[in-house]
Specification:
Layout (H helix, E strand, L loop, with lengths): L2 H9 L12 E8 L5 E8 H10 L3 E4 L4 E4 L8 E8 L6 E7 L16 E3 L8 E3 L8 H5 L2
């Protein structure tokens, strides 16, 4: 990358997202109100374009190998309030308002980040930081 193109990428105003070799870009999703991290997902070019066009969050599901409009099944769609990119434009950060209860995790919790990892220990152990569920995933998604 030339010095000029690096400067344009890092200091310019052109939105030129840099997708990885698989055509994906990471997306961190936070609550526009509280700032809490709700989830992490991937976007491909189509998901990013649909997110920009519709103002609602679209992602790429690697496990289903399919485009995914957040909230299609649960009804908890994510209205994009803000979208940012990092310095080298290889990561997206969106702030969202969730329709219905602010719940982003398929386990029924507000955030996918509901456990913490104990630090300074050889054995990795998780501790629940938010065990409360906002909705019953079986009622929303079935078994």
């Amino acid at each position: 990358m030339s010095d000029n193109s690096k400067k344009e990428l890092e200091e310019g105003t052109a939105f030129t997202p840099r997708f990885d070799k698989d055509g994906l870009i990471p997306c961190i999703t936070t609550s526009a109100g509280s700032g809490e991290v709700l989830m992490f997902a991937w976007m491909n070019r189509e998901a990013l374009e649909k997110s920009l066009e519709t103002g609602e969050a679209w992602y790429w599901s690697r496990s289903r190998n399919a485009l995914w409009h957040k909230g299609t099944t649960s009804g908890f769609t994510q209205k994009i309030i803000s979208m940012k990119t990092d310095c080298d434009q290889d990561c997206i950060w969106i702030g969202v308002e969730v329709s219905g209860p602010e719940a982003a995790c398929h386990t029924g919790r507000q955030s996918c980040f509901y456990r913490s990892v104990e630090l300074g220990k050889k054995a990795t152990k998780l501790a629940f930081t938010r065990a409360d569920k906002i909705f019953d995933p079986k009622k929303v998604y079935g078994d």
